[in-house]
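Action item from last week, closing it out:
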Amino acid sequence: MALSGLDIYKLLPKTNCRQCGFATCLAFAMQLAKKAVQIEKCPFISPEAKAILEAQALPPIKPLILGLNESKFEIGNETVMFRHEEKFRNPAGVGIIIEDSLSDEEIKSRLDKINHLVFERIGQLLEVNLVALKQNKDTKRFLEATKILLSNTAKQVVLMPKDLLALKQAAEIAKSRVPLIYCARENNFKEVGAICKEFNLPLVVTADSLGALSLLTKELNALGVNNLILDTGLKSVADKIWDLTQIRRQALKKSNRALGYPTLAIVDKACSYDEAMEATAYISKYAGIVLIKGIEAWEVISILTLRQNIYTDPQKPLQIDPKLYPIGNVNDKSPLLVTTNFSLSYYTVLGEVEASKIPSYILSVDTQGMSVLTAWAAEKFNAETITKSLEASGAKGVVKHKNLIIPGYVAMMSGDLQDASGFNIIVGPKEAAGIPAFLKNLN
């Protein structure tokens, strides 16, 4: 648990020397509790107290950056158990496992498909973050497959060797890409830890129980290996979620530094439907990385979509820039539609306008990310705000027909909007799915 101002005060020298800039040590302690000042401001604090306070200031779950350049992403650094308390900060990494028992051409084909698993949803690009190589054959084959992997994808690499020789040689080959090593266990953690320390590589630590996992992380920390990810191995979904939840709880609620690391879960299911459901369960509770085997687009996009939904900030709706958007080869006779700047609303309308194949303008009104009905109820999508948006966007000078199509759900504002804007208001369909037919029948 975080130390209160009074807890911190007990660790201070209580001299009230004012050299920290505050009248009393208690005032300084209160500011430390708020993280408004640094402990170095106190010239007389003891080394022991300073160590306690510095440890307290560390994130409860260690942040870890994986990947290089465009493939870079961060996991960990989470601060809450439940999304509604604040937000979840760093989206879980999603990776796909490839086995070295596949032929060279099969590996290249799978990598090509993985590289192209990129989807756009409400203005954001969704893609796979990692590719893991699992050793099934001998060391020679694993090294050959490692070279193929490195040459055919820029994504974060995960190496899953079976023996130390394969690990050592593969780490040497891949060191410039800073691969994630899977994994250190009770019977090999010293040797694996030494290799990761030599090449400064992040490491997945595996043990069946949280107690054994805690002991391993402490031992590895003592060896100088600190960039760790935790895994409790293959278990039933219920048992795995229990482990992931307890690790998160121990880190956040009990300040258990030995378990204060991101977590990883591997899904090993023959059925793609089962694999997708299990992967999304682990992303929800509380894996930092999920590794699967499936590469079908329908499976991957379902997992990535759920991840996007979970890791959006519930206090800050997804928004687009409020402005006039030309869709297709528009001209001054093209239809003009209006909606809010809530991303889901805009991109839903956009998709239907594109489906109609009729070049059109979409005016996005600044409603602070609210949907149409919510913004109308909050008086942020009304005759006044739409008229201001028409003027600010220059829409009045873009089309000659002066017709404005509004969502059917806000038909009640058509009279006021027509008077305020000078546009002829046309009430469009209530549902975006009706837009293609509506535009095609528009005179």
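Closing note: The CA atoms of residues 170 and 421 lie 67 Å apart.
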